Amino acid sequence: MKKTLLIIFGVIFMSCAKEDKVAIISTQYGDMVVEFYEEIAPMHVESFMVLADDEYFDNTAFHRVIPGFVIQGGDPNSKGDNRMRWGSGGRAGKYFGIGNESDNKTWKIPAEFNDKKHVKGTLSMARSNVPNSAGSQFFICHAETPQLDNQYTVFGQVIQGLDIIDQIVYSDTPRKQNSGYRGPDADYPFEKVVMKVKLVNRSDADTK
After folding, report:
1. For the chain, what are the domain ranges?
2. Closest by alpha carbon to 50, among 100, 4, 95?
3. Any alpha helices (H) in the chain, and if so which ranges?
4. Which of 4, 72, 161, 196 is the most exposed place for a label (fewest CB within 10 A)?
5. CA-to-CA distance for 32 and 160, rounded, in angstroms?
6. How confident is the model at residue 207 (pLDDT cuts 50, 70, 90)?
């Protein structure tokens, strides 16, 4: 009887356990599946998830692509066609104590620098030269980038779709056509790489 009760309790506990969420980032090149590091960057993960649930990232673009470095996206300004505004927008998903609580456009995320290395597929948060200035813009590493370690908050990793990074990063840009080009849009793709982001249970993602 006691053994039966233990088995029943175990089944109930397992059924009630919260399943991990992953993000599916969909583009015209295919999908990337991303897992999160909630234990080391809880505010960054929470902010990303809130924005994803709000469809904030949908129809934004990977506006900056640099081979051997990163693909960067998450700026709401990239929904528009004014390339000069790309890379200048974004906010946190909730108020974390930085900015004006009554004006969500000012919300930022405190830095959560950690020991995770920036390797191919790393999901990390973009920011200005001020550490506590992350908003909604994020980047995914195309290659190992140790110069970013402990300088930017790593909060996830691509676990499927690394080949999609390769396709995005080689999108044609002004700099690729002319290595001497120095305009602010030098690394912005001519053809928009538009994304949609949705959260799903890990078991519902095709991670084979």
Report:
1. 23-204
2. 95
3. 2-16, 42-53, 162-169, 174-177
4. 4
5. 6
6. low
Query: Is the pLDDT at 12 greater than 90, yes or no?
Result: no
Give 77-104 as a DSSP string: GGGSS-GGGTTS----SS--SBS-TT-G
**Residues 136-153, mean pLDDT to the nearest whole number:** 98
DSSP string spanning 133-164? -B-S-EEEESS--GGGTTTS-EEEEEEE-HHH
**Residue 144: its pLDDT value, please?**
98
Report the SS3 class of residue 186.
Answer: coil
> Apex CA 55: angle with CA 78 and CA 127, to 5°?
50
Judge contact between 200 and 78, C-beta under 8 A. no
Q: Of all residues in the chain, what percent are helix, strand and coil, respectively (each to 5)?
A: 25, 25, 50
As a whole number of angstroms, the distance between CA 104 and CA 113 comes to: 23
Class level of CATH domain 23-204: mainly beta
Structure tokens that stand for 58 in this block: 């949908």
Phi first, then psi: what are they for 102, rounded to 5°?
Answer: -85, 0
Note the pLDDT of residue 9. 46
3 state SS of 5: helix
Report, as an integer, the average pLDDT of 50-71: 98
Do 23 and 33 touch, CB atoms closer than 8 A?
A: yes
CB 189 within 8 A of CB 173: yes
Q: How far apart are the first and last CA of the chain?
A: 40
